[in-house]
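Worked example (supplementary).
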Amino acid sequence: MAKRRETPSRKQLELRLSGQAFEIPPLWDVLLIGHQAPIGPEAAKRMAESLAPGQFELVRVQKAPVEALLVRKNLLKALEAEVLAELLLEELAPLLGEDQVVRAQVEVVLHAGRTIRLE
Amino acid sequence: MAQVREIMTRAPVTVGPWASVREAARLMAQHGVGSLPVLENSTLLGVITSRDLRGVHPNRVVLDVLKGPPLCISPEASLLEARALMEEKGVERLLVVKEGRLLGLLTKRNLAFALGQQFDPLTGLPRADLLRDELERHLRRGLDPTLVFVDLDDFGKLNKRLGHTFGDQVLRAVAERLSAFAQRHRGEAYRYGGDEFALLFPRLRQGLLPHLPDLLEPPLRVEEVGVDFSLGVSGGRRRRKRPGNPRATADDLIRLASLASTLAKSRPEKIALSEDLEVTSARAPGARSGP
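After joint prediction of all chains, the assembly is encoded as:
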């Protein structure tokens, strides 16, 4: 009768690495926070304060499904909070859900033109 | 009369504003409580309840669940004050705070249990202890409340003639009539003891006296048996705060209203005022007409 020959078990651990620059802050310009999102407005504000002190402001909104917006303060110099909120809620509606946190980039570009009469 | 400090939950389990909802729920389950005061560096921010946590993502922080400023009450407040505050604000918990320091938590359940012992099970009316407490509270606030003592006529004879179960029916019917009257005139009805009741109104008597005869009309009948009662009135005459000790004044008001109700028994209109006792004070030693 042939004897069974056991070979020692061989385990290998394979490591895969990938790296990417972490944006500071990772919030872009506006964070739209749903009513049932895993992070609430106060927690989001605290996160923003840690990553970008004094740069973000919390704007509470009554419109479902969003509870609040965390907005870069610079944006509020160019736009009223209510106007910005209404615009974002309307345009980003397909992405918004009660349990979602959506980040948005908002670029403010000023267009101006003048005519100068030459003598 | 019991104070909030006597029935509050001492050293309640607390939670920080930056703890997760998951952690808050775990604490509630671990300690078998339905609410947690929220403290940050010993500053009281509010209270969260198990109802607040319902349907909220467990990753959220407590501060994002907190609703409004905390509703606080002093440890020296009476149970009736606590009940009034809970009813007014529609809440089931009050934080017991003194000089900004959290001392305990008062739940509606604890309050109901404590108050239940001071309510008459037959009529559902608060008892004499609560009347005295409420009377003192009004006096401390600088009011001169009006007290009406209600004394049933020949209740003992009725009891003997028709039995105690009928007597109980009579007491319930009287309590119903008094409660309805008190409600109409923003007062409170009490069962003082035996066949005596009281009505307390936190204001002067002038607006109330014209309505007192309504209490006696139409005559009360229980199973075709007429039930009469007499009314004695004290207090409610002073526009300025009463001097002296509210406790002693409350005792005086109760005594005078009780004596006036006895005097009213001999009158056809069945109503007597405390000042009417002056006439009979010579025959009733110790009956001062001060209050």
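Two points are worth noting when inspecting this output. Residues 21 and 123 of chain B are 44 Å apart (CA to CA). The first helix of chain B runs from residue 4 to 7.
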